[in-house]
């Protein structure tokens, strides 16, 4: 991401970095621009000055600045627009924020066409591997997740995540919507965890928590706006079948997912009924991080028809499609390949498709190709592509 950040800062006057709280946005921007003044708008004194007298506030930074948690003072954005238009120089302001809705609303009003938007999620498996004591065990990797502070300071995972959830609910959520019953929202968060890698059925979510469907829809949007979850759309292609149109829900971090599922040790994952969903969530989020860290749009979908035939992941790249199956098992079985082999010829016949690749990601380590399908062990996912 460091290289991507520098690249876009060389082309745009403003760069906006969004992502969940504690994902490393501030650290990344300060390391990438060590000589640029840094101000966090979480500081009440700095925020008050920025809101009450934005011209005087910005005058302190004639050559630009890193402004952390920019959504806390959206009033600044229209004044930043005037400055960058006047100076016509790339890389003047670096904005960060942990609330996607607040930032994008302000950007669309004031900074459209002037800022590049990058998303920074918790550490990828490849990035975690750079820490000297990083684990090479699958269940440890799923359990720990990718929040940098856990790895950097060797903090107890469950303890840190419990504090994170409490802070998230009390600060980030309350800044977006006014919720009186935080216990019900926390229960909703847990129910969503139980649905990760499954269809985002709003009526089912609402029923399980005991709230109205519109409330469930609103709360799910908040989880997405604060980068806890994301929804992946189904692939729509005319292959003469009735297709499922409901998106799937995923968590951005499996450490947080495991915590919300009540998993308190890596060993519990091996026998957990949602082991497959946890592993699929990890694989999908890893591939998504890879594209986002390169400044690319994800262009990731799933496929499911009305008969239940499903591909876990389809990545679209121009005229090329990559069909990906994800299996948590550590031993390759023949039926792992049944769906991908059946659907690949159908996708290959679609108009505008020049190439169809087949990939299997599984919970083992050896990776023999099979029938034209590339097989990838989980630990090799970081270097995949």
Can you characterise this structure?
This protein has 385 residues and is α/β, with parallel strands linked by helices. It folds into three domains: 2-119, Rossmann fold (3-Layer(aba) Sandwich); 125-280, Arc Repressor Mutant, subunit A (Orthogonal Bundle); 301-383, no CATH class. The chain is 44% helix and 17% strand. The protein contains 17 helices and 13 strands. A five-stranded parallel β-sheet has the order 2-3-4-1-5, sandwiched between helices. It has a five-stranded mixed β-sheet with strand order 9-10-11-12-13, with helices on both faces. The radius of gyration is 22 Å and the shape is globular. It starts with a helix and ends in an 8-residue tail after the last strand. The relative contact order is 0.10. The model has no long low-confidence stretch (mean pLDDT 89).
